[in-house]
Design a protein that fits this description.
InterPro entries: Cell/Rod_1, Cell/Rod_MreC_2, MreC, MreC_beta-barrel_core
GO cellular component, one term: plasma membrane
CATH class of the largest domain: Mainly Beta
Keywords: Cell shape, Membrane, Transmembrane, Transmembrane helix
Number of strands: 12
Number of domains: 2
CATH superfamily of the largest domain: Rod shape-determining protein MreC, domain 1
Family: Belongs to the MreC family.
Shape: rod-shaped
Function: Involved in formation and maintenance of cell shape.
Structural class: alpha+beta
Length: 268
């Protein structure tokens, strides 16, 4: 059963009287010992609480610093990888620049343009006697243009052109024929590929003696290859099948198996 209104009033009066009594006792100093006891107990608890709060704050700050350090390390690692990529790119650019500087020995040809191209593959149908380069029609590459290597050395000619690539027939291909000239004796001939690493110079007149070690260069008679491009050196001389001509085995001046970059000599 619920309390009666009289009982509620009595409780309120008692509660109010108790408050007045506490105020009276506090003003007279009767509660000082009780207050001191409570402070004695509460102050250490407050100190412990404050210390715990400091520890929590310190731990939280340490976690934030660890997170920041981790993020900075990840950032530095990413930047380090980017820098390594830049360095690698610069090294490749330096290699290309060194390669191009070797071409400064070329005779001045104001009507010619050199286009640097990378070797990206070999044509399996020709058993490696044709290579693919990473420059094509969009770069101005055209068929029947000479391809050279470092040192003004003849490599071959462009035989097929695609939008972003082209095929180069090497001098070693059996269908390759280059009008040539021996540099010292000035004898004309025709250098052919035989499918191996060596070349053959045919139709050399017997009027003069051909010496081993003599250089063979392009004669420029055909129109595709400019005059003066180095092809190789005479390695062996032997008689042809008739009495008017002699042949020579030519050691190619370029290593066709390890070509990485070439220059396309394009007419403007």
């Amino acid at each position: 059963m619920g309390q009666s209104p009289r009982s509620k009033l009595s409780l309120f009066v008692l509660f109010f009287a108790g408050i007045l009594l506490l105020i009276f006792l506090n003003e007279r100093g009767f509660l000082n010992s009780t207050k001191n006891a409570l402070l004695t107990v509460s102050v250490p608890l407050q100190n412990v609480s404050a210390l715990a709060a400091d520890k929590v704050n310190y731990f939280g700050q340490a976690l934030r610093e660890i997170k920041n350090i981790k993020e900075e390390n990840e950032k530095f690692s990413s930047e380090n990888l980017e820098l390594k990529g830049v360095v690698s790119g610069l090294e490749e650019i330096k290699r290309e620049n060194d390669f191009l500087r070797q071409q400064l020995g070329l005779e001045e040809k104001p009507d010619d343009v050199l286009i640097l191209a990378g070797v990206i593959g070999r044509d399996p149908l020709t058993f490696g006697r044709a290579i693919l380069i990473d420059k094509g029609a969009r770069d101005g590459i055209r068929e029947k243009t000479a391809v050279i290597s470092a040192g003004n050395i003849l490599v071959g000619q462009i035989i097929e052109v695609y939008e972003n690539s082209a095929k180069v027939r090497l001098l070693t291909d059996i269908s390759s024929k280059v009008p040539a000239l021996t540099q010292d004796s000035r004898m004309d001939g025709l250098i052919k590929g035989d499918g191996t690493a060596s070349l053959t110079m045919d139709l050399i007149s017997k009027e003069k003696e051909l010496a081993v070690g003599e250089r063979a260069i392009s004669s420029g008679l055909e129109g595709i290859y400019p005059k003066g491009l180095l092809i190789g050196e005479v390695e062996e001389v032997f008689s042809a099948d008739n009495q008017f001509f002699q042949k020579a085995k030519i050691k190619a001046a370029v290593d066709f198996q390890n070509l990485e970059s070439v220059l396309v000599l394009k007419k403007q």
